[in-house]
Amino acid sequence: MIKLQQFGFGVAVISLLTFSACDTIQQAAPGLAQEALNQARKPAQPQLTGDQAAGGLKDALIKGVTSGTDRLGAVGAFSQNAAIRILLPPEIQKIEQKIRDNKILNALIGKELDKTIEAMNAGAEKSMALAVPVFKNAITQMSFADAMGILTGGQGSATRYLKETSELPLQEKFKPEVKKALDEVSLAKIWQPVVTQINKNKRILGLEADVQTDLNQYVTEKATAALFKEIEQEENLIRKDPIQRTTELLKKAFDYADKNQK
Q1: Which range, of 17-21, 28-32, 100-104, 210-214, averages the lowest pLDDT?
Q2: Of 35, 42, 59, 252, which one has the greatest count of Cβ atoms within 10 A?
Q3: Whose CA is closest to 67, among 76, 77, 53?
Q4: Residues 184-222: pLDDT tens digits?
Q5: Positive or negative CA dihedral for 129, 132, 133, 134?
């Protein structure tokens, strides 16, 4: 009899626990269902639009141009950096040692060659400040029809696109600014005597024709190449380090790029 009573008590306890659990589940179910419904009702996160992607890229490029020109515009930025230091034009480099080895020619133009190198690098440094609005204007007016592809294209892809589509037009706009900078350091006055003496002695130096180097174009190309290199470094830094994404647009654009890297 006791066993039956104990058994009956056990069944009652189990039943009570079961009913309690079911009651708890029933009570919780509406809350869970409501939560699921709320989640379903939440608006989907908007996709990154082409305009936003283009805006993010332009922000990155403008940031790169600004930072790059600031660094390259500092005194000694070109002359003291072996990676971008502007040397004599190739045709002059070929005969430079002959000039240095010839006592007469070295006395005539050796120091002028040194001044030319110094002036070219100083001119490139000075041109950077003048170049900022030129590059900014080119960037802001660019049409990024394939902005999404550039965003997900990995390191340097935006800079490559900018270089491929804008390098020559930029150089045409950049060149007068470089000339102004070179005029400030009187490069023409230094360079002309050098060219004159080299051409007068071209047979001694093994030249078949006169040297006709356009230093303005030469320095423009060198300065532009150095600036593109700086822009690419800045772009890659933004891609690599989220801390460098200093605006919401940059964050949004390059967060998307991180998740959709090709």
Answers
A1: 17-21
A2: 59
A3: 77
A4: 888 888 888 888 889 998 888 888 889 888 889 999 999
A5: positive
